[in-house]
Amino acid sequence: MNTELMEALTILEKEKNISRDVMMDAIENSLISACKNHFGTADNIKVIMDRETCDYAVYAEKQVVEEVADPAFEISLEEAEKIDSALQVGDIAQIPVKSKEFGRIATQNAKNLILQKIREEERKVVFDQYFEKERDIVTGIVQRYVGKNISINLGRADAMLTENEQVKGENFKPTDRIKLYVVEVKNTPKGPKILVSRTHPELVKRLFEAEVSEVREGIVEIKSIAREAGSRTKMAVWSNDPNVDPVGACVGMNGARVNAVVQELRGEKIDIINWDENPALLIENALSPAKVISVMADPEEKVASVIVPDYQLSLAIGKEGQNARLAARLTGYKIDIKSETQAIEAGDLPENYMEEMGLMGEEGYTGDYEDEYDEDGAYGDYDVNYDENYDEAYESEEIEFVEEEN
After folding, report:
1. I want to staple 238 with a disulfide (CB 3.0 to 4.6 A). Which of 33, 131, 143, 275 is the partner?
2. Which helix (H) or strand (E) holds 318?
3. 160-174 burial, b if ≥16 CB within 10 A, otherwise e?
4. What is the pLDDT of residues 44-61, one digit of tens each?
């Protein structure tokens, strides 16, 4: 039994997860390569290796002849009888080859062949390991900044968090542990190239899967996500169990679950709303915390007209149009938002609502104000005067909304 070789293969298999059979194949190929360097040919070389004991033997097959014309492939009858007295002219004799007799160059080439195979197998194992994590999250340790990019250690491989995939305002220090979304894993001659992101919307989804058992088990589905990384995310959820409140499950008791995700995202705000197959109700939910008077949605054209109370217009639009922009991305609809006064002026309010409010026949205001937001975040000209307390009012409305859902 070749104890030393067996121990070496066992260590490789345990530490680098390289199959013993693969390494034995590499050893056989290296011995054949060494014979080729030593003898000039390896066409008649046979390597026999016991996979259980790791014992191996190398033979050169030569034809027994009376007069030797090619020593590499032929052997005289006299020499053949020294190996096996039963051999006759025309038989094939197996001549043992002693690997210790190989020259320095042949030995070095064999060694390099084995080392190259180890490196190839190690890269393949690492690639397979992280390829399985594609479209999933991993935990990495910040190593250093390389220009504006960040080098992240993922364990057995390094990844580069590029500037485009970083959240503006996030600053990391070496040894910080962060969650990353694996966008793509490519196999290259230098090893796996892993593209990771902190801005991808799926990062939020995977974080909720990790925190919320109902999402992980498929009881609660995350139907849609719209994200402006570092600022705000809107997420629509649906429950397959009528006894499970999807929003409540994601928020958790006292907000524990959603707060864990917010903490991982360094304070990014998250709005969780109920998904609805009715596009009008979905758009109404998506515009929360703003209150809505009416929604007219066209599923074919993917456009919707929304009317909100005058005092809710700035809240529905959001700071710099963010709330309406995220709602458009979440629902996939181009959303036209008007205030109650503007709708009265344009005659867009439902008649029953105008009757209830005593507005039938009342003259509206002049002007043709109209704002449109689409899922790409484009919006028309508008002039909303935000007061100093806007942000505070927005946050208070949001808190009220979350409490109502729970």
Report:
1. 275
2. none
3. ebeeebbbeebebee
4. 888 888 877 778 888 888
